[in-house]
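To the structural biology subgroup,

Please find below the input and predicted structure for Protein TonB, which we are adding to the shared reference set this quarter. The sequence is reproduced verbatim from the submission form. If anyone notices a discrepancy with their own records, reply to this email rather than editing the shared folder directly, so we keep one authoritative version.
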Amino acid sequence: MKRVLLALVAAFAITAGLFYLMQSLIVGGEGAMSEPPKGSVLDFVRVKPEEVVQQKERKPQRPPEPEQPPPDMPQPQMQSESVDADAAGFDFSAEIQADTSLSGGVGLDTSDGEYLPIVKVQAVYPRRALQRGIEGYVVVGFTVTKQGTVRDPYVIEAQPENIFDQAAMDAVLKFKYKPRVVNGEPVEVEGVQNRLTFAIDG
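Predicted structure (tokenized):
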């Protein structure tokens, strides 16, 4: 019974204390709420400065004019064609000398004319002779036709014999001529001679 009484007294004391504390808090809070707030609030607004874009016009500069024109370049000189796939790595020449005719003679009229060489092809150096370092020459005789082609080639002289004969005749068959003209008509010329020299350069 005593314990119950003690508990009731303690509860009453705690309740009274809580009410007193709440009352004091309420009274103090009203004064705090009624006071105006102190201090000031500053708002910062950043204004972006206006950008001014300047446009510049650039004009290409005119290159200075040359004081003197460049000198003329020399024209390349064309060399006669020489074909030999088996002779790579070697330098050689098959020299073709001027034509001569056994029949001779000149045109009988001022409008006539002698035959003239137009195309001459270099002879192909024989591979076996090139490998052995053999040099020589061949004098070939033939007929120039009315059309300016070569017909019936034959060997007149060869040194050494039977080495360059075929190569010389094959080359002569590819020659082209302006035919001889007599009394306004083209004629054949027999006995034309041509010397082909075979020499290894270097």
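Summary notes: Confidence is low (pLDDT under 50) at residues 39-45, 74-91, 104-110. The first strand starts at residue 92 and ends at 96.

Regards,
Lab coordination
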